[in-house]
Amino acid sequence: RLPQEVTIWEVGPRDGLQNEPTRLSTEEKIAWIDSLTDTGLTHIEVTSFVSPRWIPQLADAAEVFAGIKKKPGVVYSALVPNQQGLERALEVGMEAVAVFMSASESHNKKNINKTIAQTLPVLHSVTQMAKAQRAYVRGYVSTVFGCPYEGEVDVDQVLQIALSLLEDGVDEISLGDTIGVATPLQTERVLERLLKEIPQDRLALHMHDTRGTALANILVGLTMGITKIDSALGGLGGCPYAPGASGNVATDDLLYLLEGCKVNTGIDQAALLSSLVLLQNSVGHPLHSHASKIFQAQ
Ligand code: HMG
Ligand code: MG
């Protein structure tokens, strides 16, 4: 049984552009995000307030957020790795932020230059500060289904980190298959364990599609009651500090699946296609999604 409604959190402007070889101008980013707003999406992750040395593609975070139109009812979020990131985000008026860490030591160190034990108190204070400002806070847990450096990741480690972030006050946990290794039976096993301790409406799935299993894994999640799914238009995406990581599950492919299964998302397919065309023109190369190959062939 599938849910009647699913919330898609579009992460392309953040996860997609952080790993995109073509550097979009601030104006191009703003135009693309505005076109995403026009699709009916209710959640868009627009940028990251991380170190511009680590992710130069998103160094214009403040300008992008200042420039986009803010449609009432749409949640615009950004990644914040630490207090400095949160302060930059709050300064420009962001009302939703996402803290992030890994369930595996090596990826955590490569991505944010800290051990897991050093990261937890940082995210604790960032979350508390954000909640004090009434911001909505997501907590990403990366490498839930496998780590590029360590291979398998212990589901109990994932659970402990997720519970710790929830205790800090994060509103929801997004479970990252950072390098796209998950399979449906593994997804079921991991979710079964987590759902024993965490309500389903506080969990989201953030699947990269490196091996083509993302939609199958998402379908498993939907049948288990998960109704929040992250995706990136055209299948852009990937963590630059996770070797072998490729794009997120594509929003356009996910929408095709959900529409076909009569699951409501509130997103207009024609408007999403316009946004896809605009994105492809900006990046200047064909996109990875299945749906985009159809319009490229026309
Ligand atoms: P660090 O070098 O250890 O930081 O980086 P530091 O605290 O020692 O500071 C060093 C310098 O960075 C200082 O500047 C700080 O001011 C500056 P300096 O004095 O040398 O001129 N700095 C900052 N500047 C702007 N904004 C900030 C900030 N913080 C410090 N917020 C740090 C530590 C966490 C900053 C760095 O490692 C970093 O930015 N990492 C981010 C990496 C990243 O964005 N990765 C991709 C996103 S995660 C992902 O894709 C996974 C996800 O999609 C889920 C999934 O798929 O699994 C979410
Ligand atoms: Mg990601």
From TrEMBL:
Q: Write the record's keywords in alphabetical order, separated by commas.
A: Lyase, Metal-binding
**Domain Pyruvate carboxyltransferase per the UniProt entry, residue ranges:** 6-273
Give the top-level enzyme category.
lyase
**Highest taxon in the source lineage:** Bacteria
Question: Can the keyword Metal-binding be found in this entry's annotation?
Answer: yes
Protein EC:
4.1.3.4
The answer on whether this UniProt entry bears the keyword Thylakoid reads: no
Query: Which GO molecular function annotation, any one, does this entry have?
Result: metal ion binding
Q: Which family does it belong to?
A: Belongs to the HMG-CoA lyase family.
Name of protein: Hydroxymethylglutaryl-CoA lyase YngG
Q: Which organism is it from?
A: Sulfoacidibacillus ferrooxidans
Q: Which gene encodes it?
A: yngG
